[in-house]
Amino acid sequence: MNNTLQARRPVTAHGARTRVLTGVKPTGDIHIGNYYGGIKPCVDLSQQDDFEVILMCADWHGLTNRAKILEAGEKTPGILAAYLALGFNLKGNALILQSAFPQILENSWYLSCVTSVGLLERAHAYKDALQNGKEPTGGLFYYPVLMASDIMTFDAEVVPVGKDQAQHLEYASDMGKSFNAATKKNVYFEPKALIQETPLLVGIDGERKMSKSYNNDIPLFGAAKDAEKRIKEIKTDSKGLDDVKDPETCVVFQMLKSFGSPEAVAHMKERLENGTGYGYGHAKKDLLDEYNRFFGAKRELYEHYLNEPSEVAKALEPGHEAMAKVADAVTTRARDALQLFPSLRSQRTAR
Question: How far apart are the first and last CA of the chain?
C-alpha cells in the first residue's frame, strides 16, 4: 500500500483502519442466498476493529431496468431495515444511501470524460443485454462509470467482489488512473479487490443458484407459512430413510450451513452420515426449525425498522455526515485538478 493511500486512511476511535466499500442494489426480495453471499460477510466485517465499512444501498443502480424503474425506491426501506435487523454495526461504520450523495454523480461525470466508449461497450452487463436481445438503457451502459464513482468518491481502499464482478474493479482502477494521468494530479487512487470465495447457494430446485428470478428462493422475512411451504419443496435425491447421505451434495444441509448454529449444523451432518432413521423429511423439519429460530428472532426487529423510517434515518445520520465530508474532499480535489472556476464554485457549495 503506497504512502499516499496510507495518509488518507481514516483515523477513528479505533485508530487507522482500512476503508472497505460494498454495495447492495435494492431490487427483489431478500432471500437466504443474499444473506449468505452478501449480507453476512458484510455484517461480520463491520464487527472487526481493523476495518471501516461503508455499506451503500445503491438505489441509483437499481434504475437501469426501464420496466422496473420504480422497484429500487420501493425496495430500499426493506434493504435498510434488513441490514439493521441482521446486525450491521453502525459504530465506526456507515450505512448510506447512494442517492443522498450528489458528489457521486459529479465524480462519475469527471470519470466518464476520460473513459472510452469502447471500454463501456465491453462491460459484461451491457454485452449480455445485447446478446439476449434486450434493449439496454443509457443507464445500463453508464453503469460501470457510476460504480467506479461509488468507490472513488469515498476513497475506498478495498472492495469485496465475487469473481464475476472483478471487471468492475478493473474498470474503476483504469478510470481513476486515466483521470490522474490527464490532470497530472493524484486525485483518485487505486482500490484493491477482495475476491470473495463464497460458493453460490443452490435454490430449492436443487439445480440453479438461489434467485428470485428462478422462483427457487426462500425469503428471509416472508410469512412463516410461506417459508415452510418453500422448504418442503426443496428437491432431493431418492435415498430412503435409512440410507447414508452425503451432506456435501444435500441441498437441505447446504442451506442450513449458510445460517445455522454450529450445533444445528453438526446435528444434521451426523444424522445424514449415519442415515439410520433420518430422512430428508426430518432434515427439512430441522432446517425449518433453525430458520424460524434464527430469522424469526430478527423478523420483529425488521418489521419495526420497516415501519419507523424516521428512526432509521436518525440511525444512519452520523454515517452520512462522516461520509459527506469524505465525498466533499474528494470532489474538491477533482475540481481543483480540473481548474474549474473556484469563486462561483465556493458559493455554490457553501453550507
Answer: 34
